[in-house]
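Hi, here's the filled form for the chain we discussed.

Project: internal
Contact: R.S.
Residues: 421
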Amino acid sequence: MELSQCLAKHGFKITFVNAESNHQLIKNASTSSTSSDQINLVSISDDAVKLSSDAVLRVMPSKVEELIEQLNDKISCIIADQSIGWALEIAERKGIRRAAFCPAAAAQLVLGFSIPKLIQDGIIDDYGTPTKKEIVRISPTMPAMNTANFVWACLGNMESQKNIFKLMLNNNKSIKLTDWLLCNSIYDLEPAAFNLAPQIIPIGPVSEINRQRLNSTGNFWAEDSTCLRWLDQQKQQSVIYVAFGSFAVFDPKQFQELALGLELSKKPFLWVVRPDIKSTNNAFLEEFRERVGNLGKIVSWAPQKKVLAHKSVSCFVSHCGWNSTMEGVSNGVPFLCWPYFADQFFNQRYICDIWKIGLELDRNENGIIVHLEIKNKVEQVLGNGEFRKRALDLKELVVNSVEEGGSSYQNFKRFIEWMRE
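And the returned structure, exactly as it came back:
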């Protein structure tokens, strides 16, 4: 959606295609109309996505192709998430120009491209299952990867693993059909990945290209802007911001340990507790609210870009999704890393090992991040000014990349010019 808005600003008409359930969530959560003369939101039947993970391969392509045929307006270009390469195949069959967009790190694309060698070296089998738990590096200057945390191997479901792995193999073929392979990153954050795969063109962070539009887009829940007024009342660089994206879930024990850790830190905190999480922890949460009083602010969803840009925020307890990672980096905010699944474990390695702007939260023998671990890591990341200093240095790199003359700015400009040809 951020990319669509960037393109709309340059005068392009966008048809934004989503699954029906997501389409409705986004429309219901929007306080202002995202759909306009420039961006038209349309949906395809949920039958294509709700049955099982292999529906992405079996059903969605025909649904999308039907939609393309139904559209009256002439389609000059199809831009597809690179993870659904079949959309590029449809565009190629119909003679429509095409571009792929990777909303994740460039390193995740490189990992996908490396699958044949990983199989050849015996690191994974033909279904993507790691032959043993080990640490590998695709390149000496890229973060180390735990094979158990490969994006397709940490889903906790063998059927999903096989289907996602198959999709990634197919994408390696379909990606060759694209005219552009765009990525929501910058050269300076991932030089090793871009050197290994120079066909990947960084245009990110897209949220920074679109920075004058600080209103979030594509949310599944309505934002609670009262947290901004609460932030205005807090001291500079004092608030712990806690948010885990749209999908991460917690069992009651882990949820309570997180709450107790925040309380024990004795720092003001802004905690995003989604409606689906709140409903299963409501009794504990109400008691917790009364106990901490004004020390903490709990909201169902936050205007994250505005929160991270706020002067009172000191650190970001995050699931390390790439969008959240980019938004934190773009605002010079240190991290406490709490990955949940997929590429989030690898993003954590960038944050902790390569960029050195955050710390990992360690789990105990039962897989729980306990309250004392949260308290101690909060103290470490806030007590060491080097995390903030390095985060601000990265922020400068990001800002320079999207300003006129910067690498992402120039790449996006070239893409716009190609679209207009």
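Let me know if anything looks off before we file it.
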